[in-house]
Design brief:
Layout lengths: L27 H8 L11 E2 L2 E2 L5 H11 L15 H12 L4 H4 L1
Antiparallel strand pairs: 1-2
Length: 104
């Protein structure tokens, strides 16, 4: 059997910025998909902000992702009709409860 992630034990404290690097095929994309709650996993557990998020529904994962997780990709895509500021603030519109002034 081949495992993308095996024996991974990772702790990232609130406010920490983390870079994931490694050779092709080592599991970086799989790790990011699991950490970002984009895909599930078969074994182990995942705690985020003190909460077990491994068994959440898709909608609940989306809510947690919106409130707690941010990605910066090597190649990012901006919406051409929006300013950089509006592109950065766009995810906050989906979060709700954030005023226009706070997004700016």
């Amino acid at each position: 059997d081949t495992y993308a992630l095996r024996g991974v034990d990772l702790r990232i404290d609130q406010g920490e910025f983390v870079a994931v690097s490694g050779p092709s095929g080592c599991g970086k994309s799989t790790l990011m998909a699991v950490l970002g709650l984009l895909t599930g996993f078969e074994q182990g557990r995942y705690r985020l902000a003190g909460r077990d998020v491994g068994t959440l529904s898709g909608d609940a994962r989306a809510t947690v992702r919106n409130q707690h997780i941010g990605f910066v990709f090597q190649s990012f895509n901006l919406i051409g009709d929006l300013s950089v500021l509006d592109n950065v603030g766009l995810p906050l519109k989906f979060r709700g409860g954030v005023s226009r002034a706070e997004r700016a």
